[in-house]
Design brief:
The complex is a heterotrimer. By secondary structure, chain A is mainly alpha-helical. Chain A contains 11 helices and 2 strands, in the order ααββααααααααα. In chain A, 76% of the residues lie in helices and 1% in strands. Chain C is mostly helical. Classes of the chains: A mainly alpha, B alpha/beta, C mainly alpha. Chains in contact: A-B, A-C. Chains A and C meet through α1, α3, α4, α5 and α6 of A and α1, α4, α5, α6 and α7 of C.
């Protein structure tokens, strides 16, 4: 066999083995998470409060906390992000402002999550006096999610054929009517998919909530937006690093991690499935 | 009695530095079909898009002169673009129905005005679909998606959609160039019928078609309106040498 | 009336755009505002180049060299792992694999990208670190090596999906021309396709760099705790991000230690900002090409 043929075979196998190694890592990871975490799962684990200095009991408050934080974050960032994307695709004047906005979006997208956490602490917790609370954490997470939502919505809007816009305007519709009646409805499925993926991302973030919302030990569920909350990702971290009884707490950490993992995978998976079914059904 | 529905007056248009339309004075007669012909790039589509101010959407467009619809100049600073566009409708080269139901496509122009009750919408939709010779084919499936229609049907749907606004003028930009011969023939016949109720201005690169269906023809060349006359007269005894050259197929 | 609705709608979108810009400005102002005052007491050169991070001793010192080196070393290690894995997988998916494999692999990579970093951290801390400590007879499994491995696997999806996009964006006729000249598949990939996709691939690596150097939870949980320059890859390290996360809880608002952590944040922000800028320029070049 000549040298070139040999290196072709070797090269191809090498590339394939890269994918294989990645897949094996993923497999080991998933197997470990599932096996260690599954042992701990039970209805009690989901729905009861933690007991005995976090060595027994369930993670219900962390689930609630994550749910509340994520909901608040999306309530703020979805409208803000969608409207910004609409401005970018339909109004976008003057041009220097568009450029600054793009810089802002790219900067926000590339900023490490711990810096969001610091910002949240400096502004929401301290300056605005919200203290470590649901609202501080939610707002911080909202800013984190913002660039993703803007980019995704903008892409969804630009994917709508320009013929629809022309037809609408030619019939005497205003830009606002065209956006609300034709462009957004056509872009909506993609916007929604992006929003769903953002939800799973926000739910899994730890650094932004470390100093703005999260607590390890809370006697009761949050009573209002000013209360601090437990959250799944922070709970995992705290169990592993602040916990005093690793014997019983590491399994709980695995269980919590599995719950978080399942949550994230299910949400992202749903979004991906929705997106491909949209692509198939799309009439244009 | 000559009745001019809409006309341009010393119309000039620039895209950036390009002087695309030069001193165009074009009168469009009421309830007649006026065809605009000319070689590619002569500005006929650009001129068409001036009549409903769709050129406003293109950045760096500058216009001088007037276009008068009835008594008003549609380019007056106070003029309301959306009202103008409901009075001057347009059908595009490639059919572009919305991804909505047939009913909602036709009713769109009325729904955005927000002043039509449900039953009146239904009546107007039927009236427009009948006028576009599409009613019989779709009357049983008004709620089905418009995208399921064939190319020719979609274009007639777009005509119905434009007619729903009861416009004074209907602009057609090479409406059959993307369609098969049968659909083309049908739409040409439709134009002859429609002119009884709407003034029609049609851009076409097909000289024979212009000869078949139009009452007046405007010949454009390099942004200028070279000749405008009754079709029979222009096609038999063109006044300008360039017109003659184009009509006999020397260029274009 | 209609005009009022139009104006209001337009103003709302305009307001949203302004608020977004305000968020960026707010972050910059917040970080710089809280961090810059440190440099009244500590020289910039001392901050960047001295290896003496003793924020709680007397006298206090804020030489962050060990932290900076920690970040760079762990990030470099992560890239060393992630580039072959990510680029190799991308090449395989885009150029070699059949359609069915591609349809499975792409969503899987996308799912991998969604795994929360704290879960990776747990995996590293509770599984990989003890394992490596046993296998390799180390003092501790929480070190640069373990952190690089976990971090590397974490950024594989980024490098893989961006590179794959770049590769599959190269038009078919380039490959056809190469094959028609008698080249093998591997030769076509490495000599024709990859050079054409160069800027996209470089962009993906830069993105991976930015993500890795900004990552907090993985390094916090897996890289160990020592704020010293790691002497070997099996020594612990303290990147900037984990320093901020670990020490912020102990500081008093407004005092020097607090400000020093914000100063680290400024440095981190500048690094990722420049990295993003370079990525943008790389992509800009691609668009012209």
């Amino acid at each position: 066999m000549n040298k070139r043929k040999l290196s072709n075979i070797l090269g191809t196998s090498l590339m394939g083995s890269m994918l294989l190694i990645t897949a094996i890592f993923l497999l080991i990871f998933l197997i470990r998470m599932f096996s260690k975490g599954f042992a701990v799962l039970s209805p009690e684990f989901f729905f009861s409060m933690p007991r005995n200095a976090m060595t027994e009991g369930g993670i219900w408050p962390a689930l609630v906390g994550t749910f509340l934080l994520t909901t608040l974050a999306m309530l703020v960032s979805l409208p803000l992000g969608i409207f910004t994307a609409i401005w970018l695709t339909n109004y976008a004047r003057p041009r220097w402002l568009v450029r600054i906005l793009r810089i802002a979006i790219n900067t926000l997208a590339g900023t490490p999550s711990i810096i969001f956490g610091l910002f949240g602490m400096a502004i929401f917790v301290n300056l605005m006096g919200f203290d470590v609370s649901l609202i501080s954490g939610g707002l911080t997470l909202a800013i984190l999610a913002l660039p993703v939502i803007i980019n995704n919505t903008e892409e969804a809007l630009r994917a709508v054929p320009v013929e629809f816009r022309d037809a609408s305007l030619a019939l005497g519709a205003t830009p606002r009517q065209t956006i609300m009646r034709v462009l957004m409805p056509a872009a909506l499925p993609n916007v929604l998919t992006g929003a769903i993926i953002s939800v799973s991302r926000v739910a899994g973030e730890t650094a932004p909530i470390m100093f703005t919302a999260a607590t390890f030990y809370s006697r009761r569920l949050p009573q209002g937006p000013g209360d601090e909350v437990m959250a799944l990702p922070y709970h995992i971290y705290a169990l592993m690093t602040e916990g005093t009884h690793p014997g019983s707490q590491v399994p709980i950490a695995y269980g919590t991690a599995l719950v978080l993992l399942l949550l994230v995978l299910l949400i992202s998976g749903a979004a991906i499935i929705i997106r491909s079914s949209i692509r198939r059904k799309r009439q244009w | 009695m000559v009745n001019i529905q809409i006309q341009t007056s010393e119309l000039n248009l620039w895209f950036g530095k390009n002087h695309v339309l030069r001193d165009v004075n074009l009168p469009v007669h009421s309830n007649q079909v006026t065809a605009m012909i000319g070689p590619s790039g002569c500005g006929k589509s650009t001129l068409l898009r001036c009549f409903n101010r769709m050129n406003d959407l293109i950045p760096e467009t500058r216009i001088t002169g007037k276009i008068t619809l009835g008594e008003e100049d549609i380019y007056a600073p106070r003029a309301d673009v959306t009202t103008i566009r409901s009075r001057v409708g347009m059908v595009f080269q490639k059919p572009n129905p919305f991804p909505k139901s047939i009913f909602h496509n036709v009713a769109y122009g009325l729904m955005i005005q927000g002043k039509f009750p449900r039953h009146e919408l239904r009546d107007r939709v039927e009236e427009s679909l009948r006028a576009a010779w599409l009613w019989d084919e779709v009357k049983d499936r008004l709620n089905s998606s418009a995208m399921c229609l064939s190319g020719g049907q979609q274009q007639r749907l777009c005509i119905a959609r434009a007619l729903a606004n009861r416009p004074k003028v209907l602009l057609l930009d090479e409406p059959t160039s993307a369609l098969d011969p049968q659909s083309t023939a049908k739409i040409e016949e439709l134009c002859l019928e429609l002119k009884k109720s709407v003034t029609i201005l049609i851009v076409t690169h097909n000289v024979a078609k212009a000869g078949r269906i139009s009452d007046h023809t405007a010949f454009m060349y390099l942004g200028e309106l070279v000749e405008f006359d009754r079709t029979e007269k222009m096609f038999t005894v063109p006044a300008d040498k360039r017109t003659e050259a184009y009509l006999t197929g020397v260029f274009g | 009336m209609k005009s009022f609705q139009e104006k209001t709608f337009r103003s709302l979108t305009y307001l949203a755009a302004l608020l977004t810009i305000a968020c960026m400005l707010g972050i910059i102002a917040g970080i710089f505002g809280e961090g810059m005052p440190l440099f009244r007491s500590v020289g910039i050169r001392e901050f960047l180049f001295t290896n003496s991070w003793y924020p709680t001793h007397t006298p206090r010192e804020f030489g962050a060299l060990a932290l900076i080196v920690g970040s760079l070393v762990v990030t470099l290690g992560a890239l060393i792992i992630a580039i072959p894995l990510g680029l190799g997988s991308a090449i395989f998916i885009s150029e070699i694999a059949g359609n069915r494999l591609r349809e499975i692999a792409k969503p899987v990579i996308e799912l991998l990208a969604g795994i929360p970093s704290v879960v990776y951290g747990l995996f590293g801390m509770a599984f990989l670190a003890p394992l490596l400590r046993e296998w390799l007879g180390l003092e501790t499994g929480l070190n640069v090596f373990t952190a690089s491995v976990i971090l590397g696997v974490m950024i594989v999806p980024i490098i893989c999906s961006m590179s794959e996009d770049a590769l599959s964006g190269i038009p078919r006729n380039i490959r056809e021309a190469s094959f028609a000249l008698g080249a093998t598949r591997i030769e076509t990939i490495f000599k024709a396709v990859i050079p054409a996709a160069k800027s996209g691939i470089i962009g993906s690596v830069l993105m991976g760099f930015g993500r890795a150097i900004g990552e907090t939870m993985v390094v916090l949980m897996v890289a160990g705790g020592a704020a010293s320059i790691p002497e070997s890859i099996f020594a612990p390290a303290r990147p900037m991000t984990s320093t901020i996360a670990a020490e912020m809880g102990e500081t008093v608002m407004g005092d020097l230690h607090y400000r020093s952590l914000f100063a680290l944040a400024i440095l981190l922000f500048l690094i990722t900002f420049v990295s993003n800028l370079v990525t943008e320029l790389v992509f800009l070049k691609k668009r012209d090409a």
